[in-house]
Amino acid sequence: MIRKKRKVKKKRGSRTFGWGSHKKRRGAGNRGGRGFSGGFDHHWTWVIKYQPDRFGKYGFSRHPSLVKEYETINVGELEEIILKNPDKFEKEGDKYIVDVIELGYEKVLGKGKVSVPMIVKAIEVSEKAKEKIEAAGGEVVEL
Fold first, then answer.
1. What is the Cβ-side half-sphere exposure of residue 18, based on CA atoms within 13 angstroms?
2. Among 77, 98, 112, 143, which one has the highest count of C-beta atoms within 10 angstroms of its own C-beta?
3. What is the bridge-based pairing of β-strands 95-99 and 90-92?
4. Alpha-carbon dihedral of residues 105, 110, 116, 120, nearest 10 degrees?
5. Arithmetic mean of pLDDT over the chain
6. How far is Cα 5 from Cα 11, in angstroms, rounded to an integer?
7. CA separation for the pair 108, 45 (Å, rounded)
8. Listed residue (73, 70, 68) closest to 120, CA to CA
9. Confidence of residue 1 (pLDDT cuts 50, 70, 90)
């Protein structure tokens, strides 16, 4: 017959839960050591099956001097900043001049909508951001 209740329910209060003497299950010896001990030895098949990437090296990491991580801001956020405080930005005709570095960022990314024409000055600008800014009648100046 299939057990309808969980075994725990049946065995509650029985001290040994049906595993014989309580002395037999004492310490870490009955589980082959504590934690991941035996990973190269008696637990090797377990390691191969469940953690195949546990040992060895994969890929490479670039030298920190070669990795550029820019502080980024999205085009949509830029527009929000302009619309909230328009008097903080200079105007050239009908275009706002936005120096991204003064705002504490270095790179402009393309998430969001642009309806305000602006001249954006930044170290780097993504392709999508460029397209959106130019479509709204603005221009991009890469420093």
1. 6
2. 98
3. antiparallel
4. 40
5. 92
6. 11
7. 50
8. 73
9. low
Q: What one-letter code names the amino acid at 75?
A: V
Cα(115)–Cα(78) distance, integer angstroms: 11
Based on the number of CB atoms within 10 Å of its own CB, is 113 exposed (0-12), middle (13-18) or buried (19 or more)? exposed
Is the pTM higher than 0.85? The answer reads no
* First CA to last CA distance, the chain: 77
How is residue 134 written in tokens? 């130019």
Three-state SS letters, 26-67: CCCHHHCCCCCCCCCCCCHHHHHHHCCCCCCCCCCCCCHHHC
Q: Which token pair is 33?
A: 């050591």
CB 113 within 8 A of CB 138: no
